[in-house]
Write a structure and sequence with these properties.
This protein has 81 residues and is of the alpha+beta class. It has helices at residues 27-38, 41-45, 75-80; strands at 7-13, 18-25, 48-54, 60-65, 69-72. The protein has a five-stranded antiparallel β-sheet with strand order 2-1-3-4-5.
Length: 81
């Protein structure tokens, strides 16, 4: 089980750069923050091309990509999960 304050949110840009927008937040906060960045002006224009949530082990728990939407977890994984 994940610990409180374990999650970080990172956004990636068209030039290959990235920034961690939050670090060490709760799972609930991470989902809300990631959804915000995945629907931001930058995400709509395409300057933000990827948003991820990572856990304390640096594993990706959620991913959004420009032009694709949520790419992880996949729909079938959510349905079985």
């Amino acid at each position: 089980m994940s610990r409180e304050g374990e999650f970080s949110i990172c956004q990636f840009f068209t030039d290959g750069s990235y920034e961690y927008v939050r670090r060490f937040v709760s799972a609930e906060d991470a989902v809300q923050i990631a959804a915000h960045y995945a629907t931001s002006v930058g995400a709509k224009l395409g300057t933000t091309v990827r948003v991820i949530i990572t856990d304390g082990g640096d594993c990706i728990n959620w991913e959004w990509e420009f032009g694709k939407g949520i790419t992880f977890p996949k729909q079938e994984e959510k349905a079985n999960g």
